[in-house]
From TrEMBL, chain B:
It comes from Dyella japonica DSM 16301. One of its GO terms (molecular function) is ABC-type transporter activity. The chain crosses the membrane at residues 21-42, 170-192, 218-240, 252-270, 282-301, 340-358. GO terms for cellular component: ATP-binding cassette (ABC) transporter complex. It is a multi-pass membrane protein. Pfam families: ABC2_membrane_3 (PF12698). InterPro entries: ABC-2_transporter_component, ABC2_TM, ABC2_TM_bact-type, ABC_2_transport. The keyword Transport applies. Its main location: membrane. This is Transport permease protein. PANTHER family: MEMBRANE COMPONENT OF ABC TRANSPORTER YHHJ-RELATED, MULTIDRUG ABC TRANSPORTER PERMEASE YBHS-RELATED.
């Protein structure tokens, strides 16, 4: 357990009658980029807040960096960085003032603060904007500033709550490169997201759905479990084909992507031929192809697994 | 408590304040505006009340009595009337506030020792009523004896404010009113704003302690409170010739106590308010009784007992006693130690509650 940065057992959080997080078990290895994948309201933020000691769990045990949380939360706060979902630096302070404030609050000396802030401004390409007010910057710039602010004291563990939800794709790529730089330097990173492409970049990830942890592992492990169950169908009338597929009990989900249908089967006992044959009545000219499963399939499979059969039909 | 961290929070607060024009305008504008309003517009010592006289006696004595009353300056002849009935009409129409009626048998009544003049007052205004009551004290009994006036059995000597000018009473208290209004609101809003903008979630995941956060946020406002005190004092002395008979050091010490009391109250409000608007509402909940019950507008001694209890719980009440004592009566803080002690106790209780109720948690 010592090589895990985070270990949580039976983690549960209830807000009144609502169960936001339901009995989650979690192990995050050190120096790893660990993803939390889930839709809005799946309990990602609540879990992160419990792990850094901001919320008291209703049940369960948490061990972060060898500290018992929430009891030893104050000691933990010196060793973690936290980037909130909403931009939480001060809009009415300049870029440099924000970073200097955070460095000082983290207990860094005047000399160390100056050197560290200079380094971060340069590394995150903010040095030509250091006098600009944070509130007037673009989404991507704010996000780089927030990351710089979260790591100003070189934390061992970094929590990022949907860090890229308000930025363009270019900034997102750039941001993820920064994250891997940090992980290479030994920082453990826990990042929540609802983007599949971001989840694919993580070393390991956990899929959360309505407060339950429904799957976890490396992206490859997760997609491997669905081998042989995913197909792409090109049809001249995809809507009709989809209607036909939806009626089949062995089909878990059908999603239309342009002119293609992406089909996820319940079992891996279906071949291209059987599927093509089954659909020939609807559209003789359709083309069926077996494809490698991706994380979206994993997500669909994991979240549908929870639902009861009658809900699946609906 | 880490001093560098405390300093960082204070500097941050001041920098944010410098960019907040509305707050800046309130810091300086509020004391000046209120001082001018209370100093010039509000005058509780009424003079020149519009009046009318009906003299049905028309004797030398009656004319002299009416002239004496007019000479007091409390009333000013504004309308003429022929009968007491006309006086009543004028009163009802609101054209006069006071009517003097001298009956035809004025001399006879005076000799008999009965009421010789009737003063009719517009009782719908409390202040006018009490001002006019002074007229009733007029010595009519010995109008011919010039020396008699000096021999009225009871004499009132106004200590500390011989000219009975309102600003002298109002300006010292105004320091307290302005500090109560701005200090409570500023701190309450300053913290709730951080919560609203999401800054608080960031701050509480840092090693900043509750005490550092609270004190660091409050101290810059304490400095502003002292600036406001100085503005009111300077303008009060310069525009209204308000005396400072006690030591200036004591004036600032008393103001400092009130500032801290209000700031800790603001902190307490901030731990409960969810939005800046709520913080404002809660502030007014405290501000209104402070104005009405502290003795600033109405004397403490005249309040019913429950009102006096509430009054004792308000920091402004104790400050009012302190500052009037120091500035007008030349007392020092030692003479008024129990009010100073009451303020200290208030600060201790509020600050402890605020720090207890503030959690570095979201739930």
């Amino acid at each position: 357990m010592t090589d895990n940065a985070i270990h949580a057992q039976g983690l549960t959080k209830r807000f009144g009658a609502l169960v936001a997080v339901n009995s989650v078990n979690l192990d995050v290895p050190r120096a790893c980029v660990y993803g939390f994948l889930g839709p809005n309201g799946s309990g990602k933020s609540t879990t992160i807040r419990m792990l850094c000691g901001l919320l008291t769990p209703s049940e369960g045990e948490i061990d972060v960096l060898g500290l018992r949380i929430p009891e030893q939360a104050e000691a933990l706060k010196r060793r973690i960085g936290y980037m909130t979902q909403k931009f939480s630096l001060f809009d009415d302070l300049s870029v440099r003032q924000n970073l200097e404030f955070l460095a000082t609050v983290q207990g860094m000396s005047r000399h160390a603060t100056r050197a560290r802030v200079d380094e971060l401004l340069q590394r995150y390409r903010l040095d030509d904007r250091q006098q600009q007010l944070a509130g007037t910057m673009s989404g991507g710039q704010k996000q780089r500033l927030a990351l710089a602010g979260a790591i100003v004291h070189k934390p061992e563990l970094l929590f990022l709550d949907e860090p890229t939800s308000a930025v363009d794709p270019e900034s997102r790529r750039d941001f993820w490169e920064k994250l891997f730089e940090l992980a290479d330097a030994g920082t453990t990173i826990l990042v929540s997201t609802h983007y599949m492409d971001e989840a694919e970049r993580c070393h390991r990830l956990a899929i959360l759905d309505t407060g339950n942890l429904v799957a976890d592992g490396t992206p490859k492990e997760l997609t491997d479990t669905l081998r042989g169950r995913t197909f792409v169908i090109r049809a001249s009338s995809p809507r009709q084909a989809k209607a036909a597929l939806d009626e089949r009990p062995d089909v878990l989900s059908v999603a239309q992507i342009g002119n293609e249908l992406r089909v996820l089967m319940r079992e891996d006992n279906v071949t291209v031929e059987t599927l093509r044959h089954a659909l020939s009545e609807v559209d003789a000219a359709m083309d069926v192809e077996s494809v490698a499963p991706n994380l979206e399939d994993v997500f669909v499979a994991a979240t549908r697994k929870l639902a009861r059969p009658e809900e699946q039909a609906a | 408590m880490n001093l560098r961290r405390l300093w960082a929070i204070m500097v941050k607060e001041l920098r944010q304040m410098r960019r907040d024009r509305v707050t800046l305008a309130m810091i300086m504008g509020m004391p000046i505006l209120q001082l001018l309003l209370f100093g010039y517009a509000i005058n509780l010592n009424l003079r020149n009340l519009p009046a009318a006289v009906v003299d049905q006696a028309q004797t030398a004595g009656s004319r002299a009595a009416v002239q004496d009353m007019l000479a007091s300056g409390v009333i000013e002849l504004k309308a003429s009337a022929q009968s007491p009935q006309q006086l009543v009409d004028l009163l009802r129409e609101g054209r006069i506030s006071v009517g003097l009626a001298v009956p035809p048998d004025f001399e006879r009544r005076k000799l008999d020792g009965r009421e010789a003049i009737q003063v009719m007052v517009d009782g719908s205004d409390n202040v006018v009523q009490s001002a006019a009551a002074q007229l009733a004290l007029y010595p009519l009994n010995q109008p011919d004896n010039f020396h008699a006036r000096a021999q009225t059995p009871i004499s009132v000597v106004s200590f500390y404010n011989p000219e009975r000018r309102s600003p002298v009473n109002i300006v010292p208290g105004l320091i307290g009113v302005i500090l109560t209004m701005t200090m409570v609101l500023f701190t309450a809003v300053a913290i709730v704003r951080e919560t609203e903008r999401g800054n608080m979630e960031l701050l509480i995941t840092t090693p900043v302690s509750r005490t550092e956060l609270m004190i660091g946020k409050v101290l810059p406002y304490a400095a502003i409170g002292l600036v406001q005190t100085t503005v009111v004092l300077l303008l009060g002395v310069w525009l209204f010739r308000v005396p400072i008979r006690g030591s200036l050091w004591d004036v600032y010490l008393a103001s400092g106590l009130l500032i801290l009391a209000n700031l800790s109250l603001g902190l307490l409000i901030s731990t409960r308010a969810r939005s800046q608007f709520q913080a404002m509402q809660m502030t007014f909940f405290v501000f209104l009784p402070s104005i009405l019950l502290s003795g600033f507008m109405f004397p403490y001694a005249g309040m019913p007992l429950p009102a006096q209890w509430i009054s004792e719980a308000l920091p402004l009440t104790h400050f009012m006693r302190l500052i009037r004592g120091i500035m007008l009566r030349g007392a020092d803080l030692g003479d008024l130690w129990h009010d100073a002690l009451a303020l200290l106790a208030f600060i201790a209780v509020m600050l402890t509650l605020a720090i207890r109720l503030f959690h570095k948690r979201l739930d």
